[in-house]
Amino acid sequence: xxxxxHKNTSNRERLDVENTILSIQQGDIxxxxxxxxxxxxxxxxxxxxxxxxxxxxxxxxxxIFVKAYxxxxxxxxxxxxxxxxxxxxxxxxxxxxxxxxxxxxxLQVFKNTYQSIVFAKRSSIEEGLxxxxxxxxxxxxxxxxxxxxxxxSFEEIGHVMNITPATARKKYERIRKKxxxxxxxxxxxxxxxLKTTR
Length: 198
Known about the structure:
Blueprint: H1 2-25, H2 32-51, H3 54-70, H4 81-99, H5 107-113, H6 122-133, H7 138-149, H8 154-161, H9 165-186, H10 191-195
């Protein structure tokens, strides 16, 4: 029942967003304020974990909203608006990282997202997660962030990363296997902890 309620709420929210976008495309630019208010916080968190600098993330979010507005007429409802604007965010952050590559760490995201995991020694788990994640490339960490933290479907991930949903699924499975293998080699985490990254 709770799952159905959550799904219905999500559908209503998406419909509200789509109606707002339609109004903007028809010339009601004041409605763009609604989009900014709805996505500003989550885009900031997303950019921050990719760029690891507060000011860079804040500047990136502003640039992303400007780019999204400039191309709002190109948006079609073949994908969710969320996936569409995240694709702009992804490309923008990738361009920034071409100029200045920053190591991306998801440690804090895991700690905040998976509080249900019972840790015997939190410090050792933190070190284990950090060690495991260090074996992933930028794109692997990005895909893991979208799937495990943002809870994106493989279709949405494919749209953001310019790959097919099938490819996104295969890459994600390879990432999971890679983490499991590295964990077996290094003994970073208990197996149950890795199972949490669906």
